Amino acid sequence: MDKKINISWDILVKKVRWGLTLEEESAFQEWLAQDKSHEVYFERVRKVWDADEPTSSLKSNLSKVMTQFDDYVEKEKERHHRKIMRNIYRYAACLLVLLTVGGGMWFFYQGDETVNMEAKIARDILPGGNKAVILLADGEKVDVEWLADTSRYKVDGIEVATAEGKIRYVGDEQRTEVKYNTIMIPRGGEYQVELSDGTKVWLNAETQLRVPTTFVGAERRVRLKGEAYFDVTKNDRQPFIVETELGEVKVYGTQFNVKFYPEEKEIKTTLVEGNIGFKSERVAEVRIKPGFQLKLTEGSKKPEVKPVKIYNEIAWKNRQFCFESEKLEDIMTMLERWYNVEIVFEDPTLKDLKFTGTLNRYDKINTMLRFFEEGVDVTFSVEDSLIKVKRK
């Protein structure tokens, strides 16, 4: 009987993503030829990688287990400050993808052992973490979650430092051709980006930012859908512009937050320091001072400008949720994006309850929900990723 050949997850990912060295390719081909189930399994890996939708939507036991295990890894990463990531992925490789003939078949068998593993991993609804997909100019997608925790992925002027949770654009002042990338943050994700001019951007959950790989011309323009905090490098000769469907924010060197989720039908721009202006097709440029927020509702010709408590507006960047007399409906929307859950109100009147508080953005969702239940006539039921808001 031939000796069973094992292969690591790293080699399979490299095969579909970048290609292998001659030594790795030889090991891969030997493993692939040993058993038909290996070929079937590798095709599943390829489909997961090439899928436009997240792996959780694929109808396979593999995608279900891997999605839940990703959440487990995020939990352990936060608890141990990333020190155990290598061991966790080594454990994942042994548990899920260190394939022999029997190991390959394990994913197709719906036995009790698999179900128990899924139940153990899915026990808690965990907070979000560093997740991002980069859509390159040629249409290729780079999912940073698939990169090893210590890797520095480099391509066409981009560097991804996964251990730091940062995407950096190196820039090339000699380049005249403009190429655009779109950085996509899913629900339950966040990431930091450093643009080619040194501008730093923090991206919140369910956000897309379209950026040039190098800023060329008389302005620095990016396009935002979602929420982002900008720390813009000063350059009086090349203004920085954040474009949204409801208007654009023009700056020269400043720190500010922009929140525009299309389904909310409004844009909010909060200035931390510096000087910015907002304008749209229907609104002439309006200047905003530090400590003030501009809010424009879809269809309106006149924006509202008012002073705000900055730490409440940018709390997400500082690892917190801060709110003051905030409606429960709006707070639950934030939790939906961050924890990647669906929240429904069984009693619509509960939506208007108002709360004030500061909570740790990285707590489990059960800890969050207990805060809202204290002293108020509201309770929550959790069923998988569905949370129901009820009256006590």
Q: Top keywords for this entry?
A:
single chain, 392 residues, alpha+beta, 19-stranded mixed sheet, three-stranded mixed sheet, 32% strand
How does the SSE layout of this entry go?
Blueprint: H1 9-17, H2 22-34, H3 36-50, H4 61-80, H5 85-97, H6 101-106, H7 112-121, E1 129-130, E2 133-135, E3 141-143, E4 152-155, E5 158-161, E6 166-169, E7 180-185, E8 189-194, E9 200-203, E10 207-212, E11 220-231, E12 240-244, E13 247-251, E14 255-260, E15 266-273, E16 276-279, E17 286-288, E18 292-297, E19 304-307, H8 310-313, E20 320-327, H9 328-339, E21 342-345, E22 354-360, H10 365-373, E23 379-383, E24 386-390
Helix pairs in contact: 1-3, 2-3, 4-5, 4-7
Characterize the structure shown.
The chain is of the alpha+beta class and 392 residues long. The chain has helices at residues 9-17, 22-34, 36-50, 61-80, 85-97, 101-106, 112-121, 310-313, 328-339, 365-373; strands at 129-130, 133-135, 141-143, 152-155, 158-161, 166-169, 180-185, 189-194, 200-203, 207-212, 220-231, 240-244, 247-251, 255-260, 266-273, 276-279, 286-288, 292-297, 304-307, 320-327, 342-345, 354-360, 379-383, 386-390. The chain has a 19-stranded mixed beta sheet that branches. A hairpin with a 2-residue loop joins strand 4 and strand 5. Helix 2 (22-34) crosses helix 3 (36-50) and helix 4 (61-80) packs antiparallel against helix 5 (85-97). The longest helix has 20 residues, at 61-80. The protein is flat, with a radius of gyration of 23 Å.
